[in-house]
Design brief:
Strand content: 15-25%
Distance between the termini: 57 Å
Shape: globular
CATH class: Alpha Beta
Number of helices: 12
Structural class: alpha/beta
Number of domains: 1
Number of strands: 19
Length: about 475
């Protein structure tokens, strides 16, 4: 373009405004499509993370330890980390047997207790990781580490990293959704973007403590229709692009504009996705919807299936509350685990079953677990178990993981991971690899250095793949 020599700065900007807007829009489109592209052959396209906040007791559920039965009631030294941190000593602790009997299930004869009878029925779909260990012995640090790879620093959540790397499969829906997240123990940081472009922030739907029937996005129905409404939206879009003139790289403003435009597009798509009434009575019953104990979490799991089916890349489904002692945190009342198991067992098994029958499980990862496990001994000689980050169990289904397989082992009491140890950084690296992302190459330059989800650690656990 030829510009006269006498043109003022204002005139030049006026003539080039559309160009700046186009540059900004191109940047937004790049962010929506994924910033890095695939590094590896992908096994999966999306993730549903079923977060069991508080720490499910692995020794009462998936990690069968006969020594806990034979030595029940005996006082033995365990090296309790919390006692050492508080007092510098670790007195002997009373061994506590599981409250629910174990049995073998599935073609591979995997051990599952009666705490989770429905998950036992789908165990041939599950890849059990029985040797996980992590950082942080309190809920806050351990939950942050689970979601962000850091116990204290402000780092992007895993969902944000995945959205940054892969983008969304549906331009009319958010690429990353967190269903009913808690305000405590990390709160918004568990689905936050930190220093990544704000476009990769997770979208919270509902919150912990609010019924799932109310967990939706408000004002989804378009308030106005017709040519005048369309003209108004076009006018707002033009004004937004003018605001970007001279502010290319302002990711906060870009994210606000992108969110507004996404909200307008969602009005035509999201109401259908969030409407569970379109499901068959058989499907609703499969998830336990309509039954008091399972209705709430069943709705969350079914919505998660509908979201990934519609192109959402990463969905967190949170079973938690807003207290500092979240759901599975039974320090003095292990029988309470049964109430939580009744709430989640049927919906979780239904989700895996439903994905499999729809042909979605092959390229969808379902990840189930909490921030740590629980001790094999009674806390303070009582009726509960303390936190245990040294060895615990999570499971993965679909997405190219080995079905009906158990990886690694804890010691004979279920206290420490000793065989095939998998650190949380390793689990993160492996999940990224399943999606076609190299955890060492998925980086973002910030404050003078390249950051990544796995910091300077992590390895891909190839034995978990089929």
């Amino acid at each position: 373009m030829n510009i006269p020599a006498a043109c003022s700065r204002r005139t030049v900007l006026g003539h080039t405004a559309c160009g700046f807007g186009a540059m900004a829009l191109a940047g937004l489109c790049q962010g929506a499509a994924g910033a890095t592209g695939l590094h590896l052959p992908p096994r999966a396209k999306r993730v549903i993370f079923l977060f069991m906040a508080g720490g499910v007791s692995h020794v009462d559920s998936f990690d069968h330890k006969p020594r806990l039965f034979t030595d029940d009631g005996k006082k033995m030294p365990f090296g309790d980390l919390r006692s050492i941190a508080k007092t510098g000593t670790s007195p002997p602790q009373r061994v506590m047997k599981p409250l629910w009997p174990f049995a073998r299930h599935g073609q591979g004869g995997q051990w599952v207790s009666e705490l989770f009878p429905e998950m036992a029925r789908i165990v041939d779909h599950l890849c059990l990781v029985k040797s996980l260990h992590t950082e942080g012995i309190a809920h806050g640090p351990a939950t942050l580490f689970l979601h962000t790879g850091s116990t204290t620093a402000i780092r992007p959540s895993m969902g944000s990293w995945i959205h940054y790397g892969l983008g969304s499969e549906n331009a009319d829906l958010p690429g990353f959704v967190s269903l009913s997240p808690a305000l405590a123990n990390g709160g918004p940081r568990n689905y936050g973007h930190a220093f990544l472009p704000a476009l990769h922030q997770g979208t919270a739907v509902g919150r912990a403590g609010l019924p799932a029937t109310e967990a939706t996005i408000p004002n989804l129905a378009p308030a106005r229709h017709g040519p005048l409404a369309d003209l108004g939206r076009d006018l707002v879009a033009d004004l937004n692009r003018q605001q970007l003139v001279g502010r290319v790289g302002d990711t906060e403003l870009e994210a606000v504009i992108a969110a507004g435009e996404l909200a307008a597009r969602m009005q035509a798509t999201a109401p259908r996705v969030f409407d569970l009434a379109s499901e068959t009575p058989e499907t609703l019953a499969l998830y336990g919807i309509g039954t008091k104990a399972t209705d709430n979490f069943g709705r969350q799991c079914l919505l998660a299936r509908r979201l990934v089916e519609s192109g959402v890349r990463f969905v967190q489904v949170n079973y938690t509350d807003n207290s500092n002692n979240p759901a599975w945190d039974q320090h003095s009342n292990m029988p309470k685990h049964l109430d939580h198991a009744r709430a989640v067992d049927k919906p979780v098994a239904a989700l895996v079953t439903d994905l499999a029958r729809r042909g979605l499980l092959d390229d969808t990862i379902v990840w189930w677990g909490g921030e740590f496990g629980r001790t094999p001994y009674a806390q303070d000689d009582g009726t509960g178990r303390d936190h245990n980050p040294a060895g615990f169990t999570v499971w993965l289904a679909g997405g190219g993981f080995r079905a009906g397989h158990a990886h690694g082992a804890t010691d004979e009491f279920g206290h420490h991971a000793v065989e095939g140890r998998v650190h949380m950084h390793d689990l993160h690296a492996t999940l990224l690899a399943a999606l076609g992302l190299d955890h060492e190459r998925l980086t973002f330059r910030h404050a003078g250095r390249d950051f990544r989800l796995t910091d300077v650690a992590g390895r891909v656990v190839h034995d978990l793949f089929a």
